[in-house]
């Protein structure tokens, strides 16, 4: 039965601080790290503000900007149609809003990623997490904590590239297929994308995109403050713009956490 007092109580607890609202979103500015692909491919553009007026002769009482951005810039949501395996599935505007909100599970591999930037989450990690914490949440998010967001204001450190490409944590092809077979809404990361920096060379390339988006699930990227979330029990709300036919969108991602 619908009980409107539940929402009233929730609002009161948010207002009182009894439920904390944690912002998992990276700020958007010209130096927000973006993915760089090999030069033979099309490239996404950095975020840019283009001033229209600022209380001046172009608009005496108002300040506003045009924005220029890729869909996959900063904290953003990957829609299923971003990948060829999800072609014909939901675009970002077609995702039912109830599928943008769900319980979050956090798997913490920050120590491992600090030692090895190419660290890959594997199936045994997911099995061990579930032995300790219960099943991955049905219609929920799995958030992969790596500590990588600490590099988020330094694009070079964030990309961590050398002549063999980028070195950032991700998932194995087996773990990607495992996640695709769960009841999760999607998989969230601190890095520029849901796949590892070295994933262009994996078999298949970009296995997380291939399996997870192909299964109609979503990706969330460049998340911050995952260290402020409990292992289970947070409620995550991802709010991408409804770009009609779009493959993704910058998103505000918030977590509700009982204080
Ligand atoms: Mn993306």
Give a structural overview:
By secondary structure, the chain is an alpha/beta fold. The protein has a single domain, classed as Putative cyclase (Glucose Oxidase, domain 1). It has six helices and 14 strands. It has helices spanning 4-16, 110-115, 123-133, 155-159, 173-180, 207-214, and strands at residues 19-23, 48-56, 59-68, 76-78, 101-108, 120-121, 141-145, 161-162, 165-166, 170-171, 186-189, 218-220, 232-240, 248-258. The chain has a seven-stranded mixed β-barrel. Helix 5 runs parallel beside helix 6. The two termini are 27 Å apart. The model has no long low-confidence stretch (mean pLDDT 97). Manganese (II) ion binds at residues 72, 76, 78, 193, 219, 221, 248. Manganese (II) ion binds next to strand 4.
Care to give the gist of this entry?
This protein has a single domain (10-258), classed as 3-Layer(bba) Sandwich (Glucose Oxidase, domain 1). Helices cover 20% and strands 29% of the residues.
């Amino acid at each position: 039965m619908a009980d409107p007092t539940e929402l009233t109580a929730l609002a009161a607890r948010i207002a009182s601080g009894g439920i904390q609202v944690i912002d998992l979103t990276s700020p958007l500015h010209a130096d927000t790290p973006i993915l760089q692909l090999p030069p033979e491919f099309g490239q996404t553009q950095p975020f840019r503000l283009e001033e229209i007026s600022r209380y001046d002769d172009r608009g005496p009482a108002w300040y506003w900007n045009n924005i220029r951005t890729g869909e996959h810039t900063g904290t953003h949501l990957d829609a299923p149609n971003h990948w060829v395996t999800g072609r014909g599935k939901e675009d970002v505007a077609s995702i039912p809003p109830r599928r943008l909100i769900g319980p979050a599970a956090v798997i913490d591999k920050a120590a491992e990623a600090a030692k090895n930037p190419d660290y890959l989450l594997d199936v045994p990690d997911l099995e061990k997490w579930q032995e300790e914490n219960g099943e991955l949440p049905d219609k929920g998010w799995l958030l992969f904590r790596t500590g990588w967001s600490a590099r988020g204001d330094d694009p070079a450190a964030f990309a961590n590239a050398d002549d063999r490409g980028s070195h950032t944590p991700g998932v194995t092809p087996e773990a990607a297929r495992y996640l695709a077979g769960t009841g999760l809404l999607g998989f969230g990361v601190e890095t520029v994308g849901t796949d590892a920096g070295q994933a262009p060379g994996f078999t298949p390339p970009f296995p997380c995109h291939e399996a997870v988006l192909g299964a109609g699930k979503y990706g969330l990227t460049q998340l911050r403050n995952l260290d402020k979330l409990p292992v289970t029990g947070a409620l995550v709300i991802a709010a991408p713009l409804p770009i009609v036919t779009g493959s993704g969108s910058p998103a505000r991602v918030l977590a509700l956490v009982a204080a």
